[in-house]
Write the C-alpha cells for this entry.
Amino acid sequence: MSDADGLQLDGLRRRNAAAVLRAVRTRGPLSRTEIALAVGLSPTAVTKITADLVRAGFIGETRDPVPAAREPGRPRVPVELDRTRHRFVGVHIGLRRVTVGLVDLGGEVVAQRARAHGAATRPGSVIARARRLVEEVLAQDGAGPGQVLGYGACSGGWVLPETGVVRELPGLGWRDVALRDGLRIDGLPEPAVDSSVRALALAEARGGAAQGVDDVLYVFAGNVIGCAHVLGGRVARGRNAAAGTIDHLAGFGGARAGDPCSCGRGGCLRAVAGDAAVLAAAQEAGLVPAGALIEDLAAVARGDSAHAAAADALLAERARRIGAAIGALLDLFDPEVVVVGGGVRLALEHFDGLVAAAREHCTLPHEETPVRPAALVGPSSLIRGAAAPALDAFYSDPLAAVRARVDAANDRMADSAG
C-alpha cells in the first residue's frame, strides 16, 4: 500500500470515528446496530470504531442492556458518552469579571469559578487572574492536565482567532492583546480563542436552541450587540474576523437617538439598545442607582414599586429596537433559525414584541423563520460558549486527541530521560 493510500485510509478512519462519536453525543445511548444505521457504516466497522472510542475513554457501555427487538440472542448493549474522564476548559473575559469552568464531553459544565476585575482591568492582571481560575477549577474537579482535551477562551470585541489576539475590546480599553499567549499553561492544550458572540453562536448551534440546524443566525444584545452566522456547521468570521459587528447599525430613533456612540455618531444600535444605554436612561429617570446592572433593572420591572412600569417600558422599547435590527438581518442572511441571547433574555415577557418588530422591519417573507430565545443562560452559558470552539474541534477529529496525548506522553518520557 502506498503512502497516499495509507493517508486516505487514515483520513477515512478518522472521519468515521468522528461521525460515530457525534451520533452517540446527539442521539445516545445507542446500540452499535443503531449507530450503523445512523451513520451509514457496516456493523463490523462500527464495532471496531466503538472499541477504539471505548479504549480512549470517550464512550462506555451502559449498565442496563436492552433486549434486541424481535431478535433472538444476546441483548444489545448501548453505548453513551463517558462524561467522567475528560474535560474541556472554558475561559470568558467579560467587561466586569472573568468566568472560568470545565465542561464534560457532552458540553455540560462540571466546575466553575468567577472573579470580578475590580479596578485591575489591565490585560496582564486579567489574564493572570484567568490562569489562576483555570488551576482552581481543575483542582475543584480533581482533573489532571492529562484529562484536558481542549482549552477555549473568548472575549467581547474584535478577536482574531488565527493569532489569538484581541484586536480591540473597548469596554476594557484593550488593543492588540495576545490573549492566547497569555493564557497558555504548561501541560494543557493551546487555547482556541474567538469572540464571545461567535463562540456562543456555536454553542447554541451544537447544543442549544438551534441544535441540529445548519443555518443559524445568533444575535447577542448586552454590553455589546453583535451577531454571528453559523452556516453549514461553520461560523462565518469574514476576511478580517470582524463579521457580525452590528453595534453601529444606524437609523434607530427614540429619546436617546441623539446620544453619541463611541464611533462619534448618534442613533447607533448600541447607543440606544445596549446595556449601558438602557441603564443610562434608567439612571437618568431615577429608576436604578449608579453602578446598577441590567439584571437590577429587570428586577425593578418585575417588582411592585412605583418605578416598575417605567422600567418595564424601557425594556420593552429595547426589545423592539433589537427586533427591528433582526428584521434587517433576516433580509440580509435569510437563515433557518434566529437565536437571541444576552440582556434581552432577562425580560422574556417582551420577546413577542421583539419578534413582532422583526417581522415588521423585514421586507422579504420570513414569517416561517423561527426567532427563539437562547437556551444557554447564566454564567454556565459563558463557559459553554468559551469551550465550544475547542469541543467542536475535538468532535471533528476525536482520534487526533488520542494521538496528541500519546505524543505528549512520549515527549514527557523523553524529557525525563534526558
Observations:
- The chain has three domains: 3-81, 87-201+379-417, 210-375.
